[in-house]
Design brief:
Low-confidence stretches of chain B: none
CATH architecture of the largest domain in chain A: 3-Layer(aba) Sandwich
Shape of chain B: flat
CATH topology of the largest domain in chain A: Glutaredoxin
Helix content of chain B: 55-70%
CATH superfamily of the largest domain in chain B: Cytochrome C biogenesis protein
CATH topology of the largest domain in chain B: Helicase, Ruva Protein, domain 3
Number of helices of chain A: 5
Number of domains of chain A: 2
Helix content of chain A: 25-40%
Low-confidence stretches of chain A: none
Strand content of chain B: under 5%
Number of strands of chain A: 6
Largest sheet of chain B: none
Radius of gyration of chain A: 24 Å
Mean pLDDT of chain A: 93
Distance between the termini of chain A: 77 Å
Distance between the termini of chain B: 77 Å
Largest sheet of chain A: 6 strands, mixed
Number of helices of chain B: 5
CATH architecture of the largest domain in chain B: Orthogonal Bundle
CATH superfamily of the largest domain in chain A: Glutaredoxin
Strand content of chain A: 15-25%
Oligomer: heterodimer
Shape of chain A: elongated
Chain lengths: 182, 136
C-alpha cells in the first residue's frame, strides 16, 4: 500500500468519532441554550397596518388604527377572554393604566357575554376594545398568539412587541418603552 | 371506578379551554367553488407555516389561528390575488420564517450550494479511490 493511503485511512478511521463528538457538542449546546421559538413581528419600527375594528361591547368604543396616531403613545393589547394567561395580565395592565398609560384592546375570537364577564371578574383597563373575530388584524400585525402587546408611538409607529403576558416585574421595562415612544 | 375515569377524562379535556368559543372561520375548512383557485390556495397553504404548531403547515394544523389563516388565504385567492403576493404579505409581517419555500437571501445560500458542494466532494473522493487502486 502506498504511504499516502495509510495516512488517509488513519484520518478516515477517526472521522466517525470526530463527527460523533461534533454532534454531541451541538446537542449539548442547544440543550443548554434553547432556541427562542417565538415568532417576532417584523413590523417593529414600521407604521401599524391600517385597520378599523367593530365594536364588541355596547359601552366600550371600538378601536381603529386612526385612534393610535394621536400624538400620545399607546399600549395595544391583543387578548381574549378564553386566554388563561390574560387573566393575570389584565391586572398588570390595570397597574399600567393607573400610571397613565393608554391601554387599548384587540379581542381575538371573542363573544360579547364572555368578554363582559371576563372584564367584570378581572378588571377593565381598556379605553377601547376592537372585535377581531377571525384574527384578521392579529395576523396583519404579525402577532402569533394571545396575549401580545404592541407599544405604538404617537405617530402610529410600532416601537416594541411583547410576546406573552406582561409580568408585574416587566412594568418598568414597558413604561420605559412607552417613554421612549413619546 | 367509573367516576374516577370521568374525572381523568375531564382532566384530559383541559386543553379545550385554550381555544375560543367561536366557530371556525367560514373558509377555514371549506373548499373554494372554483377548482383552479382551490388548487392555488391549497398549494400555498401547504407552504405557509403554522404559528402555533410550528412544525406544521397551515393546511395540516388544527390550530384556530391556522384556520383563520386558511380563511384569509382562500378569501384573497378568491378575490383574485396571486399566491406570491399573499406570501409576500405574510413574509412582510412574520419574516421569511413563515414560508417553507426557501428564499434567495444570503442566509439561504448554503442551502442552495450544499448539493453542489456535496457532489464536488463526492467526485473528489471517487477520483482519489480510483487513483489509489491504480497505484496498488
Amino acid at each position: 500500500m502506498a504511504p499516502g493511503a495509510l495516512r488517509l485511512s488513519r484520518a478516515i478511521r477517526f472521522a466517525p468519532l470526530v463527527v460523533f463528538l461534533a454532534i454531541v457538542a451541538a446537542l449539548v449546546w442547544r440543550l443548554a441554550t434553547p432556541v427562542d421559538t417565538n415568532v417576532h413581528s417584523t413590523l417593529e419600527g414600521r407604521a401599524i397596518p391600517a385597520f378599523k375594528l367593530a365594536q364588541i361591547l355596547p359601552d366600550k368604543p371600538p378601536l381603529s388604527s386612526a385612534d393610535l396616531a394621536t400624538g400620545q403613545p399607546h399600549l395595544v393589547n391583543v387578548f381574549a377572554s378564553w386566554c388563561v394567561p390574560c387573566v393575570t395580565e389584565v391586572k398588570v395592565l390595570q397597574e399600567l393604566k393607573d400610571s397613565g398609560v393608554h391601554v387599548e384592546g384587540i379581542a381575538i375570537r371573542d363573544r360579547a357575554p364572555d368578554l363582559e364577564s371576563f372584564l367584570a371578574a378581572n378588571g377593565d383597563p381598556y379605553e377601547r376594545i376592537g372585535d377581531d373575530p377571525q384574527s384578521k388584524v392579529q395576523i396583519s400585525l404579525g402577532s402569533s398568539g394571545v396575549p401580545e402587546s404592541f407599544v405604538v408611538d404617537g405617530n402610529g409607529i410600532i416601537r416594541f412587541q411583547q410576546i406573552g403576558p406582561i409580568e408585574a416585574s416587566e412594568v418598568p421595562m414597558i413604561l420605559s418603552k412607552l417613554e421612549q415612544a413619546r | 371506578m367509573k367516576r374516577l375515569l370521568l374525572v381523568f377524562a375531564l382532566l384530559a379535556a383541559q386543553p379545550l379551554y385554550a381555544d375560543s368559543n367561536l366557530p371556525p372561520a367560514y373558509w377555514s375548512d371549506r373548499q373554494l367553488p372554483n377548482p383552479k383557485q382551490e388548487a392555488e390556495a391549497q398549494s400555498l397553504m401547504e407552504q405557509i407555516r403554522c404559528l402555533v404548531c410550528q412544525g406544521q403547515s397551515i393546511a395540516d394544523s388544527d390550530a384556530e389561528l391556522a384556520g383563520d389563516m386558511r380563511d384569509l388565504v382562500r378569501r384573497r385567492i378568491a378575490a383574485g390575488e396571486k399566491p406570491d403576493a399573499i406570501r409576500a404579505w405574510l413574509i412582510q409581517r412574520y419574516g421569511t420564517w413563515i414560508s417553507y419555500k426557501p428564499t434567495t437571501e444570503p442566509a439561504a445560500w448554503p442551502l442552495w450550494l450544499a448539493p453542489l458542494a456535496l457532489l464536488l466532494i463526492g467526485a473528489w473522493l471517487i477520483r482519489r479511490r480510483i487513483r489509489l487502486r491504480r497505484d496498488r
